[in-house]
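Bumping my old thread because nobody answered last time. Still need a sequence for this structure:
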């Protein structure tokens, strides 16, 4: 084959590749499914949401940069945009991976409450947020983020704006989100503990959900019975590292979940956990 002909062949081949990728991405966005990935990133949280229209949300980034590989496996290789990033609170097992996500991806919106924490990690996060020039959204209760195609994220916590408040511990300041698509409801709880759980119940939020992301990796200081009663989940997911030094998840929480007849999944046992929903029925895949 002449060099010219080889070049034409190459161009045609490239066009075919680009065409097949674009039809793939359109097809994957038009299947009408909400997809939620609870990544196995060890001891920490990282949850990736894709709405049927392709809009994407990342809630927390885990304890290191493992989230980058998970995103690389889940998102098309050419996709370097994330519509919404949420930082539930600034503990290392939630914020660390997110800093590098902001550096590597174009992030349109960032949801976090800007509770001030004097730590180098929080300083690095704030620096990354400033550099990103995203739209920053305060997560104070009742805010509704419309992801399109009928998918919404509603904030259920914090109750009051926390901007500028200085704290040593931020578990009980965690952003809590209700993800809704038709009849499927998923409650994401960060690391809230009993105090915040009671506060949310008293505030009268509708907490009823099919799936509960168990707060604080199954710590015994979270997931009190009253909270489980309000949420009444069918499925619970614990994001937790194998043989972690905190003893998470605790037997107390596992027993409470069992008493409520909840089907339990955990990332240390099941690896990545994926939920798909067509707005009527959902399925848990692992
Ligand atoms: Zn945590």
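Sorry it took so long. Here it is:
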């Amino acid at each position: 084959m002449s060099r010219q002909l080889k070049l034409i062949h190459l161009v045609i081949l490239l066009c075919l590749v680009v065409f097949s990728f674009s039809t793939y991405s359109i097809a994957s966005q038009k299947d009408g499914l909400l997809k939620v990935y609870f990544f196995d990133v060890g001891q920490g949280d990282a949850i990736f949401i894709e709405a049927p229209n392709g809009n994407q949300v990342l809630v927390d980034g885990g304890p290191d940069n493992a989230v980058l590989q998970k995103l690389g496996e889940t998102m098309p290789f050419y996709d370097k945009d994330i519509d919404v990033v949420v930082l539930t609170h600034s503990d290392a097992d939630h914020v660390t991976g997110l800093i590098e996500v902001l550096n590597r991806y174009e992030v349109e919106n960032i949801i976090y409450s800007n509770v001030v924490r004097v730590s180098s990690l929080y300083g690095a996060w704030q620096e990354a947020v400033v550099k990103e020039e995203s739209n920053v959204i305060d997560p104070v209760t009742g805010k509704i983020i419309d992801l399109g195609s009928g998918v919404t994220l509603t904030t259920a916590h914090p109750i009051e704006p926390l901007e500028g408040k200085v704290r040593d511990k931020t578990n009980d300041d965690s952003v809590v989100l209700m993800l809704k698509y038709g009849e499927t409801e998923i409650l994401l709880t960060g690391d809230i503990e009993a105090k915040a759980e009671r506060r949310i119940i008293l505030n009268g939020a509708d907490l009823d959900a099919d799936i509960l992301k168990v707060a604080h990796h199954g710590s015994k200081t979270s997931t009190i019975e009253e909270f489980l009663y309000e949420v009444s989940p069918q499925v619970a997911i614990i994001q937790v590292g194998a043989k972690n030094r905190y003893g998470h998840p605790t037997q107390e929480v596992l027993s409470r979940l069992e008493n409520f007849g909840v089907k339990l999944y955990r990332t240390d046992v099941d690896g990545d956990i994926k939920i798909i929903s067509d707005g009527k029925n959902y399925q848990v895949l692992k």
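Residues 44, 91, 93-94, 191, 216-217 surround zinc ion (CB under 6 Å). Let me know if any region looks off to you.
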